[in-house]
Amino acid sequence: ISFTEALQHFQSAELSKSRGKVQAPGRQGILAALFRCLRKSPRLQPQLRGEQELALAMAQCALDDSEGVHMRILQTIYQQLTCSRLGCPRYGAHWEELGFQGRRGSNPLPGEIPRPIPKIYSNLPWSNSILSQLPEPFPLLQRILVVFQNFPFCIMSVNITRIVIQALQEERLSRECNRRQQVIGVLNDLYAAAFLQLSRLWKRQHGTIADAGFFLKELELSTKKKPRQLLESLEAYLSR
């Protein structure tokens, strides 16, 4: 499934339960408003509120085995990251190839803590020719995995997603969203930019799994306080 088709599904889906779990930025109370003023952060423009609400609702949407689009998304992630042309069973140890942890036969994705599987990162059949044919953002993420053995991909992916969504909810990204007149595009680019910064931290400091918590704190600080700087770094990287 393509990103566009998946997004269109969520745009047209009934997400009332997920929307009910979202605390709207405008309803976070006087204290949140005060901090926003101290940061001199602008409010998100009204025409972008609907897209913001959609992104936050999607983040609250649980994986549903009975929903065909959810399963297609899951299969696409597996196929792209393993360079496999074949589908895979919904449950099984093969999900450990991506670093997910789960009891065999149980749900290995949302709801369980992922862990890295060290042997996978140096053995996947990735090559420059394969990477050049895959849609973004997979080439960037795969290059990171190829370079860094024992890289905790799933742990970091889940946590970077959490950080980016929190930054949106706290209106840390409003200036950039207003400038670009989009929300989800900014989220996607910021996710990739945070992964790029992580790869540089990991390489420069010879990171190990024990350093993951420290690196995540660094990423959270940069994502919430200097999102534009992160995005400019990504733009410079891609231009090269």
From TrEMBL:
Superkingdom of source: Eukaryota
A Pfam match: ELMO_CED12
Residue ranges annotated for the ELMO domain, each copy included: 69-227
Alphabetized InterPro entries for the sequence: ELMO_dom (IPR006816), ELMO_domain-containing (IPR050868)
Name the UniProt record assigns to this protein: ELMD3 protein
Organism: Erythrocercus mccallii
Gene from which this protein is expressed: Elmod3
